[in-house]
Design a protein that fits this description.
The protein has about 140 residues and is an all-beta fold. It contains no helices and twelve strands.
C-alpha cells in the first residue's frame, strides 16, 4: 500500500498503525515513517570574464551551482559551446565552492563570430539549466 504525505506535513517521525480483518482472521501492524523536508531547489548561473576575445585566446567558462543558498559540491555540469562551425560539449564536476570551470582554447584560425555557451547542472534527482550567454571572437 502507498500513501502520499500532504506537502504541509512537518518533518518528523510519525507512527502509522494499521489493521485488517476478514471472515477467517485479523491482523494488525505498526510502523514508523520519517518525513523529510524537500530538498532546496538547484540553480545554476553561467559566466565568462569578457564578451570579446581574439582568435587563439583561452575562454574560461564558469558555472556556479547552488542547492538553495549553499554551494552544490559534486554536481555534474554539462557545458555546451556552440561555435559558428559546430558544437562542443564538456562535463565537469563542481568543487566545494559549487563551481565548475571549462577553459576552451579558440583556434588561431577562428572561426570568428558569435559563440553561445549553455550549462545544465545535475545533483541527485534535481537538474537546472543556466540562461545561455554569448561572447564574440574577432
Amino acid at each position: 500500500m502507498a500513501k502520499s504525505v500532504p506537502g504541509s506535513t512537518a518533518p518528523a517521525t510519525y507512527s502509522v498503525n494499521g489493521s485488517a480483518q476478514n471472515a477467517d482472521s485479523t491482523g494488525a501492524g505498526n510502523a514508523n515513517v520519517t518525513v523529510m523536508p524537500p530538498a532546496p531547489p538547484l540553480t545554476v548561473t553561467l559566466s565568462v570574464p569578457k564578451t570579446t576575445y581574439p582568435t587563439n585566446a583561452t575562454v574560461t567558462m564558469t558555472a556556479t551551482v547552488l542547492q538553495g543558498a549553499v554551494p552544490a559540491s559534486g554536481a555534474s555540469v554539462m557545458f555546451t559551446l556552440t561555435r559558428p562551425d559546430g558544437t562542443t560539449t564538456r562535463t565537469v564536476t563542481t568543487g566545494s565552492n559549487g563551481q565548475a570551470t571549462w577553459s576552451y582554447k579558440v583556434s588561431p584560425k577562428g572561426p570568428k563570430g558569435t559563440y553561445q555557451v549553455k550549462a545544465q547542472a545535475t545533483s541527485g534527482s534535481q537538474s537546472a539549466t543556466a540562461s545561455p550567454i554569448t561572447f564574440t571572437v574577432q
